[in-house]
Design a protein that fits this description.
Blueprint (H helix, E strand, L loop, with lengths): L1 H5 L11 H14 L4 H22 L12 H4 L23 H15 L3 H17 L6 H22 L13 H30 L1
Helix pairs in contact: 3-5, 3-6, 5-8, 7-8
């Protein structure tokens, strides 16, 4: 019964053997059967996250992107490179080719420097998939991370953070620009910063 299995767990004070208890719990977790579909999904998403990171790290605003195919144009239409940097590159230098340059410029346009934070959230998602443990209140956590992301982008745009790279828009991207415009029109600079700090605390 339950008593027999309970007797197998370490039985000692929390302060004297907290580390052995953690090791025991980890060993029990690792011995549980894994869900192959979750592992495959985590592997695919990890490859996607690596692709995004490589695209962002090797992003060059001087890459001249040709017009996007009709299917991609629905999502994002690239900026002419001469509007962002000069001189432009004769060939695309992004390590992930045209698609990588397209993804990097699109993320930089939407999130500005916060694109790297979005890429970090992809890595966090991979870790969650590999753990195969459901998060407590996933909707609340998703809303919290979304609040933190939007607030950070807005705050970066409000204070005009200096970013040592050429971006299609400002440091907070299109999302940060919209948030900063709304904050300035309703609360001015000081009020907008105060509200952003409050939102970061809540998120």
């Amino acid at each position: 019964g339950g008593g027999r299995y309970a007797s197998m767990a370490p039985n000692c004070g929390a302060k004297s053997c907290s580390f052995p208890v953690q090791l025991y719990a980890l060993s029990q977790t690792m011995s549980e059967p894994r869900n192959l579909r979750w592992d495959i999904a985590a592997l695919i998403f990890a490859a996607f996250a690596l692709f995004v990171w490589t695209s962002l790290v090797t992003y060059d605003a001087a890459d001249q992107l040709p017009p996007a195919p009709p299917l991609l144009r629905v999502v994002y239409s690239p900026y002419p490179a001469q509007q962002i940097a000069y001189p432009v590159n004769e060939a695309i230098t992004n390590r992930c080719g045209y698609i990588g340059a397209f993804v990097a410029q699109g993320m930089m346009h939407a999130f500005g420097a916060g694109a790297f934070l979005v890429a970090a959230l992809f890595i966090l998602a991979v870790v969650v998939m590999l753990r195969q443990k459901p998060l407590a209140s996933p909707l609340g956590r998703s809303l919290g991370w979304t609040t933190v992301l939007v607030t950070l982008l807005t705050l970066m745009e409000l204070v005009r953070v200096k970013i040592p790279m050429s971006l299609p828009l400002g440091p907070g991207g299109a999302i940060g620009a919209m948030g900063a415009t709304w904050m300035n029109s309703h609360f001015a600079l000081a009020g907008g910063i105060i509200i952003c700090l409050c939102c970061l605390t809540i998120g």
